[in-house]
């Protein structure tokens, strides 16, 4: 196998020792600014999951490399806040003598502020890096503590980060109409109608994936997601202002945007917000995603804020026919690449020479050999044995494990293609499952995860049903054994955009966004035994109008499974599956074989034929 083409790196080894000297630098800066504390979120000005290197301030300060989190540094103490995905990872990457680890949900930063800030304390924050809604919560907590939340014009981390990377200027290109399915002029008109019906004059758009979707453009400012970091103002008449660095735009992109879009330098945003305020415009602003700085600028200028969802979010989530057809095609190519990888793994891993890194590189290469790979959709989670129990494990040279015969290996990966974004997890035994006292438990857990996956895949539900109403289907088989998993069951996925896209999701957390036709969401129940192994089975599905049910009184929605790759039969306890569950699995495997056979070389095809034999 040739060397991987390099969409991911593995040399970024955790170094907890960075915390002490860097916190000392930050505390010196706090003293210079007359502050008693400073908040460091893992975010940039767009409040998204995907941030460029210069915005990785939390990682620089603490060593923590997760995709969500926050730190608060006071004069004498500090805390880092992470969610359930990172409770193990944070202890490997962060100096626990400097930071107390707190659960982002169970022990939120707001409560910590109330308990730890002294009366009269001044807690600094960068208003560009916190949403308006989050800043309101922070202000409330500071007030309860008798303290003050102080907006900082300059970010204190930027003051002390000597070798901070430069702001990116990635090229922005048009997204082909054959993949978008609708030209951007039509989208502008459609979304401006939403503003008109909401009786507002304009909307400020701050989420780069919304801007990419609305204008049918894609960028390269962050890894793994084709985002053009930029801001936009959409007016009720269908005209839009796009605030983007001139260096990113090709002549083709300028021509593509046309006369409905006026281009501005990013620095012009302040003036444009002031103009909206001076005209007393009523402005739609998503306070859960827009920076507090933007809201405050509008309010100070005299604008009337009408809080509401980003008007692009729902139209973007409801994929059109071209987008669904594109993601189907992408999943066929991707499924062939993943199946070739699994066949390769079955031959090579039992020899004891494959590591977590070399496996991830091999999978990347198989995808590259399709000739259509644009990037990975995230860093591959390649975890053998106990590393598989770390939900968002990211292998590095320091943590790299060899896949040994009998290990349980979890690989969660995805790819970006022009016609679709993929995300798939498979859990496999390296060679024959190890005949140990734990084998029966492993197979029991694997089969219960599979039962949950199948229950969700087979679900029928009425129009208006949200993912929180379906989440129990994926957990029920685990619950019956006193087991569960601590992450969501499903997240939305974009069309050659973000692998994590809202507003739809399948989760315990209450939410009321209906699962509408065209939405793409993951189906990924799991089980994790700390220090031993992890199990997750993930396919992407799209919401469709279900077939008519005999005797039914209401039309029902359904899921169409998009992902195509075999599920490891050697880890299944067949006696735990119902006849309907067996039928689903066997039908799915028959479809995998029929669809992928023409794309596989003979050796891999022989492996697949064996892998998908009926259970």
From TrEMBL:
Gene3D superfamilies: Creatinase/methionine aminopeptidase superfamily, Creatinase/prolidase N-terminal domain. InterPro entries: Creatin/AminoP/Spt16_N (IPR029149), Creatinase/aminopeptidase-like (IPR036005), Creatinase_N (IPR000587), Pept_M24 (IPR000994), Pept_M24B (IPR033740), Peptidase_M24_C (IPR032416), X-Pro_aminopeptidase_P (IPR050422). GO terms for molecular function: metal ion binding; metalloaminopeptidase activity. It comes from the Bacteria. Pfam families: Creatinase_N, Creatinase_N_2, Peptidase_M24, Peptidase_M24_C. The keyword Protease applies. Residues 555-614 form the Peptidase M24 C-terminal domain. Its EC number is 3.4.11.9. Residues 22-158 form the Creatinase N-terminal domain. Keywords: Aminopeptidase, Hydrolase, Metal-binding, Protease. Residues 327-545 form the Peptidase M24 domain. GO terms for cellular component: cytoplasm. It is an enzyme of class 3 (hydrolase). Belongs to the peptidase M24B family. PANTHER family: XAA-PRO AMINOPEPTIDASE 1. This is Xaa-Pro aminopeptidase.
């Amino acid at each position: 196998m040739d060397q991987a083409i390099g969409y991911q790196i593995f040399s970024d080894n955790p170094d907890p020792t960075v915390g002490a000297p860097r916190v000392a630098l930050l505390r010196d800066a706090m003293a210079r600014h007359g502050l008693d504390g400073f908040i460091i979120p893992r975010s940039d000005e767009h409040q998204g999951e995907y941030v460029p290197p210069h915005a990785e301030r939390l990682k620089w300060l603490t060593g923590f490399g997760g995709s969500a989190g926050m730190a608060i540094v006071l004069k004498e103490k500090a805390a880092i806040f992470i969610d359930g995905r990172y409770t193990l990872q944070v202890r490997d990457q962060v100096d626990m003598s400097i930071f107390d680890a707190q659960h982002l949900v169970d022990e939120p930063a707001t409560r910590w502020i109330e308990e730890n800030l002294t009366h009269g304390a001044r807690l600094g924050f960068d208003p560009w890096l916190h949403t308006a809604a989050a800043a309101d919560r922070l202000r409330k907590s500071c007030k309860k503590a008798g303290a003050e939340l102080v907006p900082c014009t300059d970010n204190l981390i930027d003051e002390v980060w000597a070798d901070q990377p430069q702001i990116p200027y990635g090229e922005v290109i048009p997204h082909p109409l054959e993949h978008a399915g609708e030209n951007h002029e039509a989208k502008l008109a459609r979304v401006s109608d939403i503003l008109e019906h909401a009786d507002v004059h304009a909307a400020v758009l701050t989420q780069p994936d919304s801007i990419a979707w609305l204008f049918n453009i894609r960028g390269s400012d962050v890894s793994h997601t084709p985002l053009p970091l930029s801001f936009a103002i959409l007016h009720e008449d269908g005209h839009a202002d796009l605030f983007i660095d001139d260096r990113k735009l090709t002549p083709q992109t300028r021509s593509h945007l046309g006369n409905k879009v006026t281009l501005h330098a990013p620095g012009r945003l302040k003036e444009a917000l002031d103009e909206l305020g001076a005209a007393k415009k009523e402005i739609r602003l998503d306070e859960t995603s827009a920076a507090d700085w933007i809201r405050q600028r509008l309010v100070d200028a005299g604008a009337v804020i009408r809080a509401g969802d980003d008007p692009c979010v729902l139209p973007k989530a409801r994929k059109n026919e071209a987008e669904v057809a594109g993601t189907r095609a992408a999943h066929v190519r991707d499924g062939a690449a993943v199946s070739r990888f699994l066949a390769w793994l079955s031959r090579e891993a039992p020899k004891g020479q494959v590591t977590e890194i070399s496996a991830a590189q091999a999978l990347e290469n198989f995808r590259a050999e399709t000739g259509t790979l644009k990037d990975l959709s995230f860093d591959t989670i390649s975890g053998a044995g106990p590393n598989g129990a770390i939900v968002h494990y990211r292998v590095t040279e320091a943590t790299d494990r060899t896949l040994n015969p009998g290990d349980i290996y979890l690989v969660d990966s995805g790819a970006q293609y022009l016609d679709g974004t993929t995300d798939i997890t498979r859990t496999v035994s390296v060679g024959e499952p190890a005949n140990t006292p734990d084998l029966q438990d492993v197979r029991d857990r694997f089969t219960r995860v599979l039962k949950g996956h199948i229950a969700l895949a087979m679900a029928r539900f009425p129009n208006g049903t949200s993912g929180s109403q379906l989440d129990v289907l994926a957990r029920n088989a685990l619950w019956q054994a006193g087991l569960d998993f601590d992450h969501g069951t499903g997240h939305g996925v974009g069309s050659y955009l973000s692998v994590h896209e809202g507003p739809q999701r399948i989760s315990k957390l209450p939410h009321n966004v209906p699962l509408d036709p065209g939405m793409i969401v993951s189906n990924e129940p799991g089980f994790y035994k700390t220090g031993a192994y992890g199990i997750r089975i993930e396919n992407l599905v799209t919401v469709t109008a279900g077939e008519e049910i005999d005797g039914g009184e209401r039309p029902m929605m359904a899921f169409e499974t998009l992902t195509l790759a075999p599920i490891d039969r050697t880890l299944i306890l067949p006696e735990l599956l119902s006849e309907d569950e067996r039928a689903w699995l066997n039908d799915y495997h028959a479809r995998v074989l029929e669809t992928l056979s023409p794309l596989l070389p003979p050796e891999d095809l022989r492996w697949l034929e064996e892998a998908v034999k009926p259970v």
